[in-house]
Write a structure and sequence with these properties.
The structure is a single chain. The protein is α+β, with helices and mostly antiparallel strands. The chain has two domains: 103 residues; 155 residues. The chain has 13 helices and eight strands. The strands form two sheets. The protein has a five-stranded mixed beta barrel with strand order 1-2-3-5-4. The chain has a three-stranded antiparallel beta sheet with strand order 6-7-8, with no helix packed on it. Strand 7 and strand 8 form a beta hairpin. Helix 10 packs antiparallel against helix 13.
Length: 267
């Protein structure tokens, strides 16, 4: 499960933080004060998109695949915290925000977004496992890691994956795409690393996805059970939980076929 921290004070709004414009707040992290970036979703968006669950599961699974992601927590912006707000715009924003716990990640220092123009393919591969990130985003059906936004932050020369709210676009029929050896191109055509991978030398392509395949082969979908339970405990919808777990189980059982599909996509 993710830790649950209570927000103590407001720091700032991240104006360049996409459509959600997250807040930086100071939280009590088991007796230590730490800054966290917190997303403020409206209720209708949570109910229609499961975005809190998507953020949580994306963060957890990225680490299961050996991919870098900031430390995450569920943040309580309770009445004590709200009483510290004096700015009308902040008060209005919090009033329009869903009352349940918020998804947050520990604030990274000195961050820059990953920019394709700043790296050739060799430099990108040296910094990131571009093939694993590409396969991971396709696995969780995340179409939101594009040039704009990249949703990859570089902090002190280390990369971090963020923003999985649009992931897990999964139904009972999603696995049929793999069974039929096809894949919806909206999950890969505009991916930030698609052109890097497709334009790589054939000898380099032969090395792609090997590590990812091993992680998927070893994945135990039951690792998500405690997070599903936590989401349920805090009042979030559980309707997609069995669908996601069943899908990941099937993908785990067919890891080689999925990786072969990814290899075909970048040929």
């Amino acid at each position: 499960m993710l830790p649950v921290y209570k927000a103590i004070s407001f720091q700032k709004v991240i104006e360049k933080g996409g459509h959600t414009k997250p807040w930086v707040v100071i939280v009590d992290a088991s007796g230590t004060l730490k800054p966290f970036v917190v997303k403020l979703f409206e209720t209708y968006y949570i109910e229609n998109n499961d975005c809190v669950a998507n953020e949580m599961l994306g963060n957890v699974l990225s680490k299961e695949f050996g991919l870098p992601a900031p430390n995450a927590a569920l943040i309580d912006l309770d009445s004590d915290f709200r009483s510290t707000l004096r700015n009308f715009n902040l008060l209005e924003r919090i009033e329009n925000t869903d009352d349940r716990l918020k998804f947050g990640t520990e604030l990274l220092e000195s961050v820059l977004p990953f920019e394709v123009a700043a790296y050739d393919s060799g430099q990108a591969r040296a910094l990131l496992d571009i093939d694993s990130i590409f396969a991971f985003d396709n696995l969780i059906r995340n179409r939101d890691r594009t040039r704009q936004p990249p949703n990859i932050l570089i902090s002190n020369n280390a990369p971090y994956l963020i923003d999985h709210e649009m992931g897990f676009d999964i139904t009972n029929f999603t696995f049929n795409e793999l069974s039929d050896s096809r894949w919806d191109n909206k999950y890969y055509r505009n991916h930030i690393f698609f052109n890097y991978l497709k334009n790589s030398w054939p000898s380099t392509k032969n090395e792609y996805f090997n590590e990812f395949e091993e992680y998927l082969r070893l994945l135990n979908p039951a690792v998500l059970d405690s997070y599903f339970l936590q989401l349920s405990k805090h009042g979030f919808s559980t309707g997609k939980h069995p669908i996601i777990k069943d899908y990941l189980t099937k993908m785990h059982q067919n890891s080689a076929k999925f990786v072969n599909l990814m290899r075909g996509i970048i040929q």
